[in-house]
């Protein structure tokens, strides 16, 4: 695992460390097999292509997609969501059509839809969350109507840690012919994703938040939707036939993977999936919960700390955001750094949620199963130190 | 690891908790808001310049102790200075943040931010209010037909 010089790394929602196996796979590719995929008549090109396509199969199995061609490799969640926004939604939206996101979305699941709304003349509607940070299901039910074409929601909030069950929402969206897009970036390292069970239409996530490398991600789409979806990038690898005036494209997923892909990243993603499978989600979720429970009970014991979202540890999927009375989040983060604890402080790419919470910024501690109770306790020591300094 | 109290010195905490010249001015000649998009810190400065002297300088803002204390101490440093003096002090403060040698002793308590160079992620917090005033001076220059540009 990546070593951070004894830093208690509690910024896993930002990006997770990588295990040695992932580094080894990437290293092996660059040292011994650095050839391109989907071309080249030599054997090694075929070997690497098989490995690359093998990861596609592995991802499909990992999220229970029934066909590996439903898996598009992207550069990350942001890229995946932009593909759906500009490749699918833009061509399906008429003026007066509507899209729905929630107030707790990361900017990556908000700004692309704003752009699509502006370009199409459609309308972007924002569903609220309740006091505990759960999606307001009643408001959402009311909001979904015959004009709705896209509903795009985070499975787990990157600020509040709340989880949204997508199954009932998928059903409501499908009743009126809308698609449900799921931003699973914050979920994937902490809970299994089953696209068939959720019956959602698109799912986006990143490799680097699930113990994999940066610069690689996944877009899952139902086969018929990927077929309808337009590529947003054009060039080599994604074409079928090209004349000097026109081109036809490969079927999905290759039509979405223009240019030489992030081969090392994809292979590293495959290794990260092996790593997660090796530990197993039941074990991951158990450790996550123990850590969050300790963190919540410690913070709840400090009357000068405000925890955002639910007071219950069960509702925080590896993420707890808070503020300390009278001390700005950045000052807390800097002082925590001085006692060897890494957390994030700021708006967490979620300005609308900050407005909703009536704050400018929050401190966010986010765990992975590799963290320890001792590290959580170190964070509490740091908060006490901050109080001392600001006395 | 640098001692965190090098950064959060008493004077910074005091200015953060009890800022000087805090609040809007009724009729400022210049108003300028600067925002740090990374963290959301905001400083708005309100400036009255009489002939070429900083008569009044107030601020309002939201953000961390460093950004707010820096603004507060800056107001103490710059009030009653001429535009030329303020311009020089801004340049000195920029040098201070970069860890370069500074020549004047007129930065007053603002020299406390010399420690910021040990905390590179917080340098922008300390610089925010000073950026706002440098923008005001550039604007003052435009209005009075002089070209003043700060390297930013």
UniProtKB/TrEMBL annotation, chain A:
<dbReference type="GO" id="GO:0031071">
    <property type="term" value="F:cysteine desulfurase activity"/>
</dbReference>
<dbReference type="InterPro" id="IPR015422">
    <property type="entry name" value="PyrdxlP-dep_Trfase_small"/>
</dbReference>
<dbReference type="GO" id="GO:0030170">
    <property type="term" value="F:pyridoxal phosphate binding"/>
</dbReference>
<dbReference type="GO" id="GO:0006534">
    <property type="term" value="P:cysteine metabolic process"/>
</dbReference>
<dbReference type="InterPro" id="IPR015421">
    <property type="entry name" value="PyrdxlP-dep_Trfase_major"/>
</dbReference>
<keyword id="KW-0808">Transferase</keyword>
<protein>
    <recommendedName>
        <fullName>Cysteine desulfurase</fullName>
        <ecNumber>2.8.1.7</ecNumber>
    </recommendedName>
</protein>
<comment type="similarity">
    <text>Belongs to the class-V pyridoxal-phosphate-dependent aminotransferase family. Csd subfamily.</text>
</comment>
<dbReference type="InterPro" id="IPR010970">
    <property type="entry name" value="Cys_dSase_SufS"/>
</dbReference>
<feature type="domain" description="Aminotransferase class V">
    <location>
        <begin position="9"/>
        <end position="379"/>
    </location>
</feature>
<dbReference type="Pfam" id="PF00266">
    <property type="entry name" value="Aminotran_5"/>
</dbReference>
<dbReference type="InterPro" id="IPR016454">
    <property type="entry name" value="Cysteine_dSase"/>
</dbReference>
<keyword id="KW-0663">Pyridoxal phosphate</keyword>
<dbReference type="InterPro" id="IPR015424">
    <property type="entry name" value="PyrdxlP-dep_Trfase"/>
</dbReference>
<dbReference type="InterPro" id="IPR020578">
    <property type="entry name" value="Aminotrans_V_PyrdxlP_BS"/>
</dbReference>
<dbReference type="InterPro" id="IPR000192">
    <property type="entry name" value="Aminotrans_V_dom"/>
</dbReference>
<comment type="function">
    <text>Catalyzes the removal of elemental sulfur and selenium atoms from L-cysteine, L-cystine, L-selenocysteine, and L-selenocystine to produce L-alanine.</text>
</comment>
TrEMBL record, chain B:
<protein>
    <submittedName>
        <fullName>Iron-sulfur cluster assembly scaffold protein</fullName>
    </submittedName>
</protein>
<feature type="domain" description="NIF system FeS cluster assembly NifU N-terminal">
    <location>
        <begin position="8"/>
        <end position="124"/>
    </location>
</feature>
<dbReference type="InterPro" id="IPR002871">
    <property type="entry name" value="NIF_FeS_clus_asmbl_NifU_N"/>
</dbReference>
<dbReference type="GO" id="GO:0016226">
    <property type="term" value="P:iron-sulfur cluster assembly"/>
</dbReference>
<dbReference type="GO" id="GO:0051536">
    <property type="term" value="F:iron-sulfur cluster binding"/>
</dbReference>
<dbReference type="Pfam" id="PF01592">
    <property type="entry name" value="NifU_N"/>
</dbReference>
<dbReference type="GO" id="GO:0005506">
    <property type="term" value="F:iron ion binding"/>
</dbReference>
